[in-house]
Write a structure and sequence with these properties.
Layout: E1 5-16, E2 25-36, E3 40-44, H1 51-58, E4 66-71, E5 74-75, H2 81-87, E6 91-94, H3 108-119, H4 124-137, H5 154-165, E7 172-176, H6 184-201, E8 204-209, H7 212-218, E9 221-226, E10 229-235, H8 236-241, H9 246-253, H10 260-272, E11 305-306, E12 315-316, H11 321-324
Parallel strand pairs: 3-8, 3-9, 6-7, 7-8
Antiparallel strand pairs: 1-2, 1-4, 4-5, 9-10, 10-12, 11-12
The chain binds adenosine-5'-diphosphate, iron/sulfur cluster and magnesium ion.
Amino acid sequence: MTPPLVLDIRDLAVEFRQGRKTPPLRAVDGVSLSIREGETVGLVGESGSGKSTIGRAVLGLNPIHSGRVHFEGTDITHAARATRRGLADRLQVVFQDPYSSLNPARTIGRTLAEPLVAQRRSDRAAIAERVATMLERVGMPADTADRYPGQFSGGQRQRIAIARALMISPRLVICDEPVSALDLSIQAQVMNLLGDLQREFALSYLFIAHDLPVVRHLSHRIIVLYRGRVMESGTADEVYSDPVHPYTQTLLAAVPVPDPRAQRARRQRRVAAEPARPPSAAGCVFAHRCAHAVDICHIVRPEPLPLPGPSGTHTAACHRSAELHPHPVAVNPSAKQHPVPTGHHVREGSSCEDSE
Ligand SMILES: Nc1ncnc2c1ncn2[C@@H]1O[C@H](COP(=O)(O)OP(=O)(O)O)[C@@H](O)[C@H]1O
Ligand code: SF4
Ligand SMILES: [Mg+2]
């Protein structure tokens, strides 16, 4: 049985005003994505591609220009503040910066208790017990509740931020670059924790990152974003092992690899793809950087087209996808079905990138 949809975003556009004489900036332009129960969808792209804007639009923190957002079947596109407050039980967020996301003047215990106190459904003893349980679950020592954020490292604070997000058993957690500010070895620990918690609580994640290898480990499906548009989407294996869109290939070329010669070759490919001229409003937003661009790319906007492959969900928004992807490589057929939690842990003490 297919698990129910938790989040469904259709044709989302978000614009920001830039002053009276300049047209608004379209930070998100026609993005559709859906997340099922127990599923992780990785949203990946360079800085400024609109990832956080999508997360913030779902949370009601960015105004939605057009399109629709449904959460657990309810249209929350323009939900009023009271409706949003009601959603807090089921929709939570973990931000990138564990330093600024915890109030430095409050004990960890008080910060974690806040959502339960706001609900007024539990007594003090029950709240204290829940705080202790969640802290223990994320691997923090028992006395953490009495201490302040300043007494913890970045990785420990991110564990605490995760505990806070899970205090009231949400269905969906938006993880906005939760490990980007952490050392590589700590990243692996936090990613493993997120994976374990997902299996334990049947959580769904919208997992945002700028690095493909980071999202790959946790994600069932990956969506690649560039300048507010979806460039490629598919199962994690398809997008990572068989990238079709020239932008996805550029993103992968930016990932450090252990072999210096391979790294040099990748870097050269990336330099070749650097901007030659600014993007035009019409056509493919990646055309000014694309080594494969032809005339039509500058004139007609490419829409996501299905690609052959085992999952039937692999798409690329590229006029030349059929030429660039004539013979799909065999990817893990188990990736076809959802949910298939990746299940494997990132080796701790190693980076997410070199653990395979
Ligand atoms: N509140 C805002 N006001 C104006 N522009 C914004 C605002 N938030 C984001 N942007 C712009 O929208 C684009 C996408 O930003 P963002 O979603 O933060 O990208 P990402 O998370 O992928 O790095 C960027 O050009 C950014 O400058
Ligand atoms: S549509 Fe054209 S410019 Fe855009 S990625 Fe494909 S080949 Fe490159
Ligand atoms: Mg961001």
